[in-house]
Write a structure and sequence with these properties.
By secondary structure, the chain is an alpha+beta fold. It has twelve helices and eleven strands. Strands 6-5-4-3-7 form a five-stranded antiparallel sheet, with helices on one face. A four-stranded antiparallel sheet has the order 9-10-8-11, covered by helices on one side.
Amino acid sequence: MAARSGQKLKLLYIADILKKYTDEDNPISATEICEKLIKLGVTAERKAIYNDIDNLCFYGYDIVHTRTPKNGYFLASREFELPEIYLLCDAIRSAPFISAKKSRELISKLDAMLSVNQVKKREKGIYINEKSKTANEEIYYNIDSISQAIEQKKKITFKYGTRHLEEGKKIVTVYKEMTVSPYALVWQDDYYYLIGNYSKYDNLIHLRVDRIRKVNITDEPMRHYSEVSDYTDFFDIGDYTSRLFGMFGGDLETVELTCKKEMLEQVADRFGDGVFIKNVTDTTFDLSVEVVISEALVTWISNYGDKIKVNSPISLQNMLCDRANRILKMYK
């Protein structure tokens, strides 16, 4: 009975062998496929393998017959190509909201899409800095619960942690209960955020998901985002986050800047290629952009010293001058 079952699964076994052991640099011969099938309890003749590979190709597998570096077959196309796997692995490795344990699990799942030889090449370049990773192992369950609540248009309750200094200079995390109407989840500035409305206020808040514990979906309908934002038909997360700096909230205003021409790359990176440029001279250009006025915006402008000048609004000018004066005062 086991042998019969093995024969019925032979095509699947061959597909797995090609996925696991072959790539462009490591083809496998029909004889070697037979040897690996025997270890799986399946007998096969070399000539029958050719027909099996033809059937797999007919089904849709991209299997190539090559004579270099040796005569054999390899799987030429996969769900993800090697550079895509590298990119995804690096994103997981560097994302601070994914725990070190979960990072390794996710990377291991991505490894299963590569051949064993491709994995060996990739492993040399993977390093996980555990100090930069969250210790919150709940995050995946919480993301699932928050996503369900958004779909069901229900409020959620959870505990949200913030750091405090205790006596003895010890850093501790203190949690408070919150009830929030969830509108969107977004990956921004290296962290995953929940955007919603805290029931005590009439505005939008941004909460880091890695600081959230014990999410519970309530039976209470969420507060509609039109009551706390400019969006009515749908919550446009792309439009909303494009105006933010560092996920800091604040008032949306038109900002007029004069920038030195060497700042063009930084300005385009931050505001996009479609930003409105005007008054171009030999050394400077002006631009107008709608953004949220916040301390994060002040920090971004301050980073470039005399290369960016704020022409308006006056409130932003005052924030910059106040920041500069406070820094100067520290060193007097």
